[in-house]
Every structure is written in structure tokens, then in C-alpha cells.
Give the backbone structure.
Amino acid sequence: MLVQTCGDDVYVPQKDFFSQAVRRNPTLHDAEYAEKLRRCNPTLGETYALPLCNAHNRRVLYCICEYPVPKDSCNITMDDWVEMVNDIRDNYEKFDGFVIIHGTDTMSYTSSALSFMFENLGKPVILTGSQVPLEETRSDGRENLLGALYLAGHYVIPEVTLYFDYKLFRGNRVTKLVNNELDAFGSPNLDPLVRMEIEVVVDWDSLFRSKSTQKFKVHTNLNCNVGLLRLFPCITVQTVRSFLQPPMQGVVLQTYGAGNGPSDHKELLDEFKAASDRGVLILNCTQCVKGVVSNSYETGKALIDVGVIPGADINPEAALAKLGYVLGKQGLTRKHQLDMLQRNLRGEIQVSNEEVKKFSLDDSKFIQAVVETLNISNSQEVKSVSTALFPVLMCAAAKNGDLTLLKQYASMGGNLNLGDYDQRTPLHMAAREGHVDIVTYLLENGCSIYARDCFGNTPYMESIRCRNFEVIKLIRQTGGHFIRETTQEIASLLCRAVELGDVDGLKAFHIADVNFNNTDYTGRTALHVAVTLEQIDCIKYLLSHGADIHTVDQQGLTPLKLAEKLDHKCISELMKSSNIHFS
């Protein structure tokens, strides 16, 4: 993580500065609460805590990892991006979200690159920093860090984003516009995803979600033989020819206006064609801060005719990262590369001019009846009614297994990720009821497996609690795992299943890849409880799926010693011969 302090009248990176600065700031760290946590759980390690959030009635807890050699952002390389994504990959299942502290000069390059390097991302990754160093009296760093931590801890926004000056931007849509103001970043072609006002305003409909049932993974093989070439009047053929020579494999061509270049400069066009013919990918990106590349002008079509690829409304930072990502994919044909460059991979471009379907009273007789009963005529109020009712209607459709109706609501503008009054999403309901077809549809349409209802349950936990084995397998395949639940809490759930003689419950946890040797707050495993209560079927299932007869609880007893102490001879013999497979 990158931070700066002052030395010799210039700002330079300083090791261990960031964590010290956070510890000194009560708006970023409640030291008293963190100390209580450590006393209750000595193995917790260095944990930081935001003050209690009344709106969510819980705290954001976080850890800090500082790199041994802090860097000014101007010195960031692709190797640093690889290190960042690998660190998040290695800790992905431990946290709800991630915040990266980064210098502002190249932050938009990093946020663009990371957006492509993370595949099937399901959790927030937020970059932030400051224009004024954190310890300065008038630093904007405190509010930026607080906002980023708050969003990462409370909202499932499964994108790489950049948070600055009370706004959250999509990471591959943002650029640094100003170097001497606190409102340094902008996203000209896409409005902010979140505005931190008196209320937190989230544009849920604009979020980009992975529409895949594949697990999260990282792609670290970026091609560094890419570059930016900006057209200008009187640019020479020699300059262009020299730039396009090997080892150059991908070029972001920054053109005039709507993607235009000098159409009467045949020698220049010939150089672009020659480069394209030998495999160089040339992606057209407008020099304008805002706008779209099109073929409306003859000067733009001339570039397309020689093999230059239209880049839609992509910005230069994202275009560079996208080229590096596509060229880094092994075994792609030229046709596949061209398809990927013109396809919306991470929300970096708008590929369709189709307008979002506007809500109409004809869309739902039920909503129409509500509107007429309330005597509503204002279109904004009608939209508010639909926003309030759609989540409830969609959850009901998911609960009832009505996929046709659920699709109809989605086509009418209903957001599949929004929750009802208990913050349960349609995926919660489908997972709870075991509707595999609906769970599959929701996952393929970007629904989050990490969303939590007001009771703290994810769709994954709902499927486990309700013993819906096929749904558990499907969500597990997509990357489902436990996050906030500690091993002790999971062990308590296992022990509860044993108390009830619930072998199906144990099977559900086994499919979810839970370790049966987890211990609860007294050091007991589920096998300890099964022995005490003489739950023979549970004992057989536990033994045949890896339960250890030698785990010692706080009383100093193993399950085997406990059986002998209670004179459960049959159970003792069963455990001694536990190498036998029980079906």
C-alpha cells in the first residue's frame, strides 16, 4: 500500500507510515473496541475497526498489509499489478472486500488493469488515495479511506472501482482530470456508481456483474508490448512506422473527434494497414475527454478500412489495459482477439445504443392497481412504487419457482440483485427453496452469492441450512464459501446438527467443503457431541468423512476417550475400526 510523508521538502514514500497514521485516527480506528476483540480472541492478530455504523448496526473490521518497499505511483509497473492481484487472490475467501491505497498519478491505470486481471470477481475491490498526504492537517485522505472502507464493508459492489471525493467510479472508466484540486478524478462516459451524500446513493442498475457460474480467478499474464500513439497534425510517416515496429503488438491510437484521422494521407494509412496485416492490434480511442468512436465520418471509416479497431467509448487507460489483457491470453485466434476487443468485458465500453426499457403502467396489472389506488400520476412516483414493489414480487416468484414470471419482471426493469424488506434477494429465496433452474438463471445474470440479508445469511448459507444439495454444489462451483463465519461458529452449527440427529445437515456441510474437525468455543468437535448423545448414524457419517477421533477438547478428552469414559463400548469399537467405510 502506498502512502507519503514529507522529507527534505519533498513527499517521499515511507515504510510503516500508513498503519501508524491509521492507529492515531479515531475516525478510522476504534482502538478500544479492537483491544476488546484481541482480548476475546488472542489469535485474531492486528485488527482495525471503524466506529459503529448506526445505519447498518455493525462495524467494519479490517486488516492492513503494507508492502516492504513502498512506491510512488509513478514507479508502478505490471509486476506490481501482478503482486496486488495475487495478494487478493490468496486472501479472497477471508474478507468481504478489499481496499488498495494507491498514489493518484497512475491510479486510473492500475484500476483499469486490475479490472481485467480479476475474472469472475464477486467482491468489491476499491482503490483510493489522496491529493494531500494522510497526516497533513487538511488531508482528503481520511475521508477517502473512510468512504472506501465503508463501502467495501457494507455493500456488495463486485467490481474494481476507484473512490475519490465522495464518489465511487468504475475503475476502467475513470481518469485523473485535475492535479491541484481535491475532486481529482472523473468518469466522463459513465456516471459514478455511488455518491456519498447524506444518504448513500447506489446506482444498482449500472453495476457490472460477472454473468458466469465459474469461480473467481486472476489472469496475470499481461502483454507489455503495448503503447499509446496520439495523432496530431503533421505527424510524420517515419514516426508512425517507427512506433509500430516489433516488438510492438498492441497500440491505442488516440484519434480526433469521433475516431477520425487524416483520410487523404495514404502513406500513413498504409503503415496502419501493414502493421494490422502483420498482427498488430490497433484500437481506436478518441482524444476527446468524452465521446464515442464511430464510423459516421469518411475520415473515421478510412481507419476501419485499414484494420483499425473501433474502441467505442473506452478511455486510454482502459484501452491500454484491455490490449495487454487480450494479447496475454494464450491460444486466441485473430478473430477471437478482435471479438474480445469490441466486446464489453468488464463494463469498460457501452456496446449498445438501445435505451433501457422505460417503466409503463401496462407492464404489471398489480403495480397499475397500486398506482391507481394511491392516485399517483407523477412518473417519478410511479417509478418509486415499482422500485419498492419489484424486489418483493421477484422474491415471491423465486420462492414459488416461477422462472417465467421472474424473467418477465427482469425484462420490465426489475433488478435481480435488490432485496426485499429483509434484504433477501431472489437468489436467497431460490437457494432456500432448492429451485436449481432459478438459481442457475440468477447466477448467469450476475446475482451475488455474497449478498447478506438482515440476519447475516448469504444464499450459500441458506442452501446449506435447507439441505438443498444440488444448489450447494452449484453455488460452491461458482465460488461460494464462508466469510464472516468463524470456524468456531461453523463447528457450533455442526454440533447443533448432531444434537438433532440430522445426517442430511452434516451431508450439506460436507458438500460445502466444511472440515468436520473444526472445534467450537469449548474445543469440541461434532464427533464429541455425537459420542455424548450416542448419535450412531451421525458418528458413522462423521467417521467416514474425515472426523478425527484424537481431537482434544478443553476437558482434555478426545472423542475416543469420551466414549470410554461414558462406557459407550459399541461406539468405542466403532471409532477404533474407523478405517471401515460407511455408506
User: Anything to note?
Assistant: The first strand starts at residue 4 and ends at 7. The chain has 23 helices and 18 strands. Residues 4-212 form a domain with the Rossmann fold fold (CATH 3.40.50.1170). Confidence is low (pLDDT under 50) at residues 1-7, 353-362.
